[in-house]
Amino acid sequence: MTVPNIILNNGVTMPALGFGVFQTPPDETRIAVAEALKVGYRHIDTAAAYGNERGVGDALKASGLARSDVFIQTKIWINDYGYDETLHSFTKSAGKLGVEQIDLLILHQPLPSAFERTLGAYRALETLLADGKVRAIGVSNFMPEHLERLLREIKVVPAVNQIEVHPYFQQPELQTLHAKHGILTQAWAPIGGITFYRPGFSKSTLEDPVILDIARAHGKSAAQVMLRWGIQEGRSVIPKSVKADRIAENFDVFDFELTQDQLAAIDALNTNERGGPVPDRITLDTFSREIPEA
Ligand SMILES: NC(=O)c1ccc[n+]([C@@H]2O[C@H](COP(=O)([O-])OP(=O)(O)OC[C@H]3O[C@@H](n4cnc5c(N)ncnc54)[C@H](OP(=O)(O)O)[C@@H]3O)[C@@H](O)[C@H]2O)c1
What we know:
single chain, alpha/beta, TIM Barrel, two-stranded antiparallel sheet, 11 helices, 40% helix, binds NADP nicotinamide-adenine-dinucleotide phosphate
């Protein structure tokens, strides 16, 4: 199975389908990532704040794959924002991952209450890029106002903005802004599997009748249809699972194609209701997490 590549705005190529490890316990991460690499994934998404970069690195090392065969991306947490802190945070992440160079390094969140520190962090990413320590840089969970401010103040346009995108929360205006600036939309929770659900919010994209109908028509699962929808609309998708059968299922999405009508039917499911936290409300008081040394 060949995963199509996406060419980022600086010419670096990245497999469109990646493997996520948010909420994968550190001691299970090596096993899950090893399974993903065995199945054929060549793109892993982790984060300093997930506490499992070491498991990703261990699986990578044990796989015997060449370093250049696997696209590794990770994220800087808000505690490490500021220019010097972010430069050091790269060292922590690279050390845990056991790599010299990180393929894509992104800021995990905007920190609107301390945007100067966010800018300092981004400038550190620009330095790491210029020094060849990372191959591409980007952001995550930036809303239009954060992105516009960033774009006014920095030199290197982010290669990606990793944001919540699934059939029930699609952020079309933000995706249009990305397209205008050549920023790739990378979808987190691409099958709607977020576990940030607010009390009383129990909608499941995996049980949506429109998606299930389309899935039946192709002899595929709801998860496979959602991943296909994301890829056909030009997004990068990074589903997470710790189960071998689902890891394989989520990779098996390249032998069918959704029609324009099917894509439109899924587009029409948008509720504009966010499952994850509102990025604007992330502060160091509420989301502080010290990132240990490597
Ligand atoms: N930047 C950010 O702020 C941010 C936030 C959230 C996520 N992310 C990234 O995006 C990745 C994906 O997001 P996510 O983990 O929240 O959600 P997701 O990939 O949409 O869904 C994962 C959930 O769905 C289950 N699942 C996986 N495959 C399935 C299948 N084929 N059928 C039914 N259920 C399935 C998983 O359970 P099992 O593991 O038990 O299979 C898990 O509970 C994360 O792992 C992380 O790398 C980034």
